[in-house]
Amino acid sequence: MKTYINTKLQQVITDRFICPVCKQKAYINNSVVKCSNIECGINFPIVKKIPILINEDDSIFSIKDYINKPDNIVISKINIKNIAKRIISFSPSLSNNLSSKNNFILLNNLLSTKIKPKVLIIGGASITTNTDMIINPNNIVVESDVSIGPRTQIIIDGHHIPFENDTFDLLIFQAVLEHVADPYKCVQEAHRVLNNDGLIFAATPFMQQVHMRAYDFTRFTHLGHRRLFRAFNEIESGVFAGTGVALGWSIRAFVNSLIRNKYFRFILSTIVSFLFFWLKYIDYITHNNKGTFNGASGFYFIGRKSDKVLSDKELIKLFKGY
Question: Could you tell me which residue, 51 or 128, shows the higher pLDDT?
Answer without folding.
Answer: 51
